[in-house]
Design goal:
With 298 residues, the protein is of the alpha/beta class. It has twelve helices and seven strands. It has helices at 9-14, 33-41, 77-83, 100-104, 130-136, 139-150, 155-168, 174-180, 190-205, 208-222, 236-248, 278-283; strands at residues 23-26, 47-51, 67-70, 89-95, 223-233, 267-269, 291-297. It has a seven-stranded mixed β-sheet, with helices on both faces. Helix 2 links the parallel strand 1 and strand 2 (47-51). The longest helix has 16 residues, at 190-205. The model has no long low-confidence stretch (mean pLDDT 97). It binds S-adenosylmethionine. Residues 4, 6, 28, 30-34, 51-54, 57, 73-75, 95, 97-99, 122, 211 line the site of S-adenosylmethionine.
């Protein structure tokens, strides 16, 4: 089985505007599709650092002396690059979310297609997993997760149902969870709602929103002037953060005005939002929700 089929490959790497001698970072290495493309555009003195917090991705490491793969969370991008003596870079690419590999291996627990233990950790070192969220979070916290990350209107009743059911016995597998929530999963919208529930738990387990914010803030700090940030996101919560940060350099509110009354912003956006064309979606269904945004540090 293929590890991962890269999405918006050409468009996202074009967005980096690669200088052959530059230093680049691919923060979501996965199967290495984007990294290979970046390396193909670098000269002998270029350099590529890649991150992936999933140990499974290490098997895909590329044998190239211009390449370093770091098995860490990209929320620590600045710290780990500093470890390699790198204080600033020319471009950063992020292809957020999970890989096809993570999704297709039943035991990882990311997919509602299989009956597996509740897990959903992208990193095997993570203490928090889906089992702990479902069985240990109090009702208010579960409600927050379903509301904020799943945008589920019936979050309060979902949370209450889980808390009541686990008093009888722990909810440990996908099928347990489906059974407990069965009455909220009418056939017609079953897959959609399950996907929202799973998305919510996954975002919580991997702290995806906080991680993304920390990463974006550090990216701004380490990019050289003229350096590019190219980010592919797969759901609206991520895309909203990326869009606001690229536009304003912040996640909430409006940036300050300069002496002339113009907004003082750290990036200029490059082009418009890019989404995969029908051809790509036909060949790779997982591309269907992808949104690519590109910005250049001013
Ligand atoms: C959509 S896949 C990337 C696929 C890759 N671009 C390719 O072409 O094969 C996302 C990858 O990023 C990793 N990842 C997601 N969030 C991460 C984080 N915060 N830190 C490090 N790796 C992360 C996942 O483990 C997964 O392997």
């Amino acid at each position: 089985m293929e590890y991962h089929n890269p999405v918006l490959l050409k468009e996202s790497v074009d967005g980096l505007n690669i200088k052959p001698d530059g230093i680049y970072v691919d923060v979501t290495f996965g199967g290495g599709g984007h990294s290979k493309e970046i390396l193909s555009r670098l000269g002998p003195n270029g350099k590529l650092f890649a991150f992936d917090q999933d140990e499974d991705a290490l098997a895909n490491a590329l044998d190239d002396e211009r390449f370093v793969l770091i098995n860490e969370n990209f929320r620590f991008i600045k710290r780990f690059l500093r470890f390699y003596g790198v204080k600033s870079v020319d471009g950063i690419l992020g292809d957020l979310g999970v890989s096809s590999h993570q999704f297709d291996v039943a035991e990882r627990g990311f997919s509602t297609r299989f009956d597996a233990e509740l897990d959903m950790r992208m990193s095997q070192k993570n203490d928090l997993n889906a089992n702990r969220v479902v069985n240990e979070y109090d009702e208010a916290n579960l409600k927050r997760v379903f509301l904020d990350y799943g945008e589920l209107k019936n979050a309060p009743v979902l949370a209450r149902t889980i808390v009541q059911a686990r008093e009888e016995r722990p909810i440990t597998t996908t099928d347990d969870l489906k059974e407990v929530l069965a009455k909220f999963l009418p056939e017609r919208v079953r897959n959609k709602i399950l996907a929202q529930i799973y998305q919510a738990i996954r975002i919580e387990v991997n702290q995806e929103m906080d991680v993304l914010k920390e990463f974006l803030e550090q990216s701004l700090e380490i990019l050289n002037k003229g350096g590019r940030l190219s980010v592919i996101s797969y759901h609206s919560l991520e895309d909203r953060l990326v869009k606001r940060f690229m536009k304003n350099g912040m996640f909430e509110g409006e940036p300050e005005r300069d002496f002339f009354g113009n907004f003082s912003v750290p990036f200029k956006t490059v082009g418009k939002l890019i989404v995969p064309n029908n051809e790509e979606i036909k060949l790779n269904n997982r591309a269907r929700s992808a949104k690519l945004r590109i910005a250049e540090k001013i």
